[in-house]
Amino acid sequence: MEWAVLVGCALVAALLVGLPRGSRVDLATVEAEAQQALIEERERLLDDLRELDDDTAAGRISADDRQGGRRAIAPRLRAVTEALRERGVELHDHDTTETAEERAG
To answer: Is residue 44 part of a domain?
Structure first.
């Protein structure tokens, strides 16, 4: 009976050791996807700010509504921008972003 328990433990250990190897994800790929998601979110937030300005200029919303919208967007935009800067992404405007590696050549 003891041998059956030992064999069972060995099988469980083999599965636990073997399974993660097949499901490991490349860390560089995950980092690149996270960086791209931040870039896309920043572009969307900047588009939202432009839309607020356009709506105000067209008279669809008041200046107070515009200011409230900008205040709502600003904290997240600031956080996303700082996260991108920490990752070495140079931010020019919402259309041009590049990493330090791309600048180097």
So the answer is: yes
